[in-house]
């Protein structure tokens, strides 16, 4: 909920409990040995509603990054802005570089990987691949100058670091989103 609440505050200036009027859609794909899209292109839910929806799900064990990235790639992305993908895992899975590259080349996006376990190397590599693709991609002529949100890797081994990571990602959304708003 920290991410959703802080994103709302960073982007709209609204505090918790204020009515949300956002232009961003949230999709949440949970994964283990299968994937489950629990939210798809949700524009209206409050941070509390989003958290309640996601909290109903548990994990079944196992980790399949390829299935998760395939499900992310299948999402219907907005043409108005660059998608932001936040990929959280304990990192205990292998993944061919081509899978991340395919996702990042299919739709220019910002990939933030967050490790909360003992295997951060693959998540660090995913973020590096995404950042390399971002750096070599031509600038979007329709995007405001300086609006790119760089992909990143973070380790969040406790709840405080996880909250700090979410706040940092939410803050990174402020500048481009504000620049996209036109009167």
Protein model, in words:
The chain has 183 residues and is of the alpha/beta class. The protein has helices at residues 2-12, 47-55, 65-73, 97-106, 121-136, 159-180, and strands at 26-31, 35-42, 84-89, 110-115, 152-155. Helix 5 (121-136) links the parallel strand 4 (110-115) and strand 5 (152-155). The model is unreliable at 176-183 (pLDDT under 50).
How would you sum up this structure in a few lines?
With 183 residues, the protein is of the alpha/beta class.
**Helical fraction:** 40-55%
Kindly name the structural category: alpha/beta
Strand order of the largest sheet: 3-4-5
Task: Specify the number of helices.
Answer: 6
Provide the residue-averaged pLDDT: 79
Shape: globular
Give the amount of beta strand, in percent. 15-25%
Oligomeric grouping of the chains: single chain
- Tell me the Rg in angstroms: 16 Å
Order of helices and strands: HEEHHEHEHEH
CA(first)-CA(last) distance: 30 Å
DSSP strand count: 5
Low-pLDDT ranges: 176-183
Biggest sheet statistics: 3 strands, parallel
Topology (elements, then pairings):
Layout: H1 2-12, E1 26-31, E2 35-42, H2 47-55, H3 65-73, E3 84-89, H4 97-106, E4 110-115, H5 121-136, E5 152-155, H6 159-180
Parallel strand pairs: 3-4, 4-5
Antiparallel strand pairs: 1-2
Helix pairs in contact: 1-6, 3-4, 4-5
Which features does this protein show?
183 residues; alpha/beta; 6 helices; 3-stranded parallel beta sheet; two-stranded antiparallel sheet; single chain
